[in-house]
Amino acid sequence: MRRIIAPFLIILFAATSLVSCLKDDDDKSTYYSDTALSMFQINNIIVTKTTKSSQGTDSTYKVQQSAALYDFVIDQEKREVYNIDSLPYGTDGTKILVYVSTLNNGVAGIKSLVGPDVTTISSTDTLDFSVPRTIIVRSSDGRFTREYNVKVNIHKQKAEDFKWTMLGTSTELAAFKALRAFNIDGKMVVFGSDGTNTTAVQADISDGKAWTPVTFSFNGLLSADMYQQIVKKGDRLYMIHNGKLLSSADGASWDEEGTPAVKQLVAASSDKLYGVDDSGEMMSSSDGSAWNADGLDTDASMLPTTDINYACSTLRTNKDVESVMLVGNRDASVYAADTAAVIWNKLDDTGSYAVNLPWAYYSIDVKNKYVLPRLANLSMTACGDYLMALGGKGVGACTKKAYSQIYTSRDGGITWQNEAGFQLPDTIDKTATMMALATDDSNHLWIICGGTGQIWRGRLNSLGWMTEE
Fold first, then answer.
1. How far apart, in whole angstroms, are the C-alpha atoms of residue 56 and residue 51?
2. How far apart are the first and last CA of the chain?
3. Among 17, 79, 105, 245, which residue's beta carbon has the most beta carbons within 10 A?
4. Non-local CB neighbours of 134 within 8 Å, separated by 6+ positions
5. Is 222 helix (H, G, I), strand (E, B) or coil?
6. Which residue has the higher pLDDT, 288 or 32?
């Protein structure tokens, strides 16, 4: 690198201007007093990666890779330069190769970490951006300068790391034998059954430790199984109580929406409610008043009747289409031979040329080793690109142990595996009567335990980055 003291830069620019004046009239060079940084790009970075050796121990190695796809924002008003999408974990911030360009042939240099020295920026020499640096751009006539504060953001956490935190225990939650949790109105609202009635408690999502009872605005008690018949459509909860469809924005105050044509709600998208009528057929409604038959691609006997869960997500390929996954078990007294949960999918199309597609049943391939087992008190949620499920001991012909693992699916419910990154907390009390999974707006995964009252919260690091960005 060539080091140039700041005063010498001024002399250099002045000398350049003087020489230009002595040239003949054919010289077409033009010198400007205005300039700015017009591009900042990182060409190459060195990243330390970790891998497992054949003996199972961690080993590290370094690779050089391009970072040209990481865009940098140049805020001319604040004179700041930064990248929104952080460079990968393990990037060596002290050895970064950059390329800069300027307006009107300005000259760019980087200020020394200590002292007033300014070093010219070379496209072949690495620079230290482990801390914020100052880039100085001098106009081509040497009269003016602009300074920029440059911050290169690097992830400080591994994207695939997942960490659980136990928020505490709750006597209110410990009283529940079965439960469902919903993220709504900035709170986690848990509807639970004591075996006789369904009640509810709530806690701020930012806290998760202090749980208080929810007082319903209607008269009368909820049945023991009502906890698993509540669904969330958009920013409201829905349930059927005393033959009326009720909705709520907070889980406490409930409004009457009409008389439904279904006996039980089973799922919802952001646009429709889905329920089962007295004959066991699927129905749908956009407003809760008018209900229409919703087609099935196989017999209705394959629909779940217990431990019903659903998850809704927008397709990456079409923002007008949502995928609704319906998961649960069939009646054990009738279908004792079942070893796996039943899974259905509905594509809810709200586009201008929408087609009402039937519910599709995921038939179980005998060659598929990664099915979702038929577990008691099954609970499922969507978290980022994952579907996650867990449950108690196997039902009927299923012999799985209670709460042995979290089952994850990245292919829309076709296969379910025990991924290394998503394990149950080491010290979670597996004597819980039920564990309910839920996800909040910050992509935290919650496990709320009936019987023991434990509350756990965790998040995949990369999902936290998505929330922040």
1. 9
2. 36
3. 245
4. 110, 111, 147, 148, 149, 150
5. strand
6. 288
